[in-house]
Amino acid sequence: MNYFRIQVALAHMGSCHTEYTCWHIATSASAADVMCNQGKLLPGVRRVTEVHAVTEADYNAARHWGQPAFAVKPR
After folding, report:
1. Residue boundaries of the structural domains of the chain
2. CA-CA distance, 23 to 70, in Å (whole number)?
3. Residue 3: how many other CB atoms lie within 10 Å
4. Dist CA 6 CA 3 (whole Å)
5. 10 Å Cβ neighbour count for 21?
6. CB–CB of 4/27 below 8 Å?
7. Pairing relationship of beta strands 69-72 and 18-27 according to DSSP bridges
């Protein structure tokens, strides 16, 4: 399992507004696949702007502190 901290640009339907947010994800996909959002790995994401590898401990700490952290399965 690979763990990443990513910054994404979220698309808001019906408006020209873009919101940037940081997520922690666990996935079997590579960093390149996450950066390109290969196969719509992250639905609703307009663009992935940053991908940083983190440890499992960092991922679990983010979940513990209530930050957006979730597992993503490639399609």
Report:
1. 2-72
2. 8
3. 20
4. 10
5. 11
6. yes
7. parallel
Q: How many residues does the chain have?
A: 75
Per the structure block, which two tokens stand in for 57?
């401990």
Phi-psi group of 15: left, alpha or beta (phi > 0 → left; psi -120 to 50 → alpha; rest → beta): beta
7-38 pLDDT tens trace: 999 877 666 778 899 999 999 999 999 999 98
pTM, two decimals, is 0.88
- Three state DSSP letters for the chain: CEEEEEEEEEECCCCCCEEEEEEEEEECCCHHHHHHCHHHCCCCEEEEEEEEECCHHHHHHHHHCCCCEEEECCC
- CA-CA distance, 40 to 3, in Å (whole number)? 18
Q: Is 27 in contact with 10 (CB distance < 8 Å)?
A: no
Distance from C-alpha of 24 to C-alpha of 68, rounded to nearest angstrom? 6
